[in-house]
Queue: 2 jobs
Job 1
Amino acid sequence: MSLLNDIPLTALHFYLTAPYACSYLPDLQARSQVATPAVLIGTPVYSELVQHGFRRSGAYTYRPHCDDCRACVPLRVPAEQFTASRSQRRAWAQHAHLQASLHPLLDSAEHYELYQRYQRARHPNGGMDNDDCESYQNFLLQSQVDSLLVEFREQGVLRMVSVIDLLSDGLSSVYTFYEPDLPRARFGVYNVLWQIELCRKLDLDFVYLGYWIKHSRKMAYKTGYRPAQGLIDGIWQPLGKEFITKDAHGNL
């Protein structure tokens, strides 16, 4: 049993939200199961919750719990078993010159400006493209667990920012945003590979990539990191070849 200052995991309460519009599959209603109180969810407790399919948004810890849909599959990559595809190796080489630096969660006008441009370019009309500074801070800079912020720069120019949670058995990729105006760049792919490499250096087992949704183009890429494991019917199990997703160029 996980403990946080001698507080058992069973001290948490779980409730279901009211139905709301699904962010990933059109015309569907979603619900979430939320763990509370947030003050009790430190790193040990959160690590166990992640193993059961939970994620966090700021201090809000949840997992999908929809009435008639099970499309959201928690996904993780075993770091030591991971083998990069040819396309992924090209992305790694393309951006190997980026300089990464690790920081505590920090509020930065430079980060926020990049976040706004990323949202407007990559997720227009998705709701987050109009996030004000307070919404951004609540989403990415509020954390009850061990978190870090990673800057990626190219000759001093900020290209990408990633927020990562440190778990007992791995890393949880919270969110990444990057320069959207370099169309040939493959920052997102490079970032996942960088996190897998960091996981190996820290001698941790898994990189948790959030939810995979087969029919959501925004989420489908995650099965391209092989081997991938999905939490299905409460059991982490390998996702077979039928789950492998190609990108828009036909690359794995």
Job 2
Amino acid sequence: MTRFLSLFLFLAIARAQDKPADQLAALRQTTDKAAADWEALAKKLEPRIARLLPCDPNSRAAVEEVSHASDARLSALSAYLKAAAAKAKDDTEAAKRVLAAHAALAGGWNTERAEADQERTAIDAQIADLKESMRKRAELAAAEQVLVELSRMIKDRASKSEEQAGRRDSIVASLGDLVIAYQDRQTALENESALLDAEAVKWTSYYAARISRAATECAIINPGRRRQP
């Protein structure tokens, strides 16, 4: 029964996270589209500007268009990774709550087993007393049968408690592994998000350098022409 309660707790938490998961899917779609748009423009950039003179304003406009698409791609990816990391953190905390709840329930197994053992010991003692009394009063036979049946029922309950207690370590270990897996995923996403921030700076600098180089080439070819701002 405890296993089903733990599963119920986990499913209840998972249902509560459906909305964040939907939002994450939407962010993923936005990221994929932004990446596709940037890739399409980036592939056409070199052939496009190869036909233009350095001083042609269309040359700078072409680089700026790809630069803006790059910014949009990186911004969308950053939003997605941050949202994914946040959800991973929520999943980690949810798994920890399930583990804690399971541990609390598991503690009840030992208590129930101990209580069942105590009850069975007490009833067995009463049965022994009745058997001794039955030597003198045969009408106590019915009472003995009732106590024997009660002892059997309590023994069955104790056996089930023992079986559940035997599974405890395995279940707790599995839940512990789940918490670690969620934690590892959260850490990986957070690290990836941090690396993306550094990559975004490099891409921005790259396109800025392309624009600056075009302006320099224009100034060399046409010294009298004023540089584009």
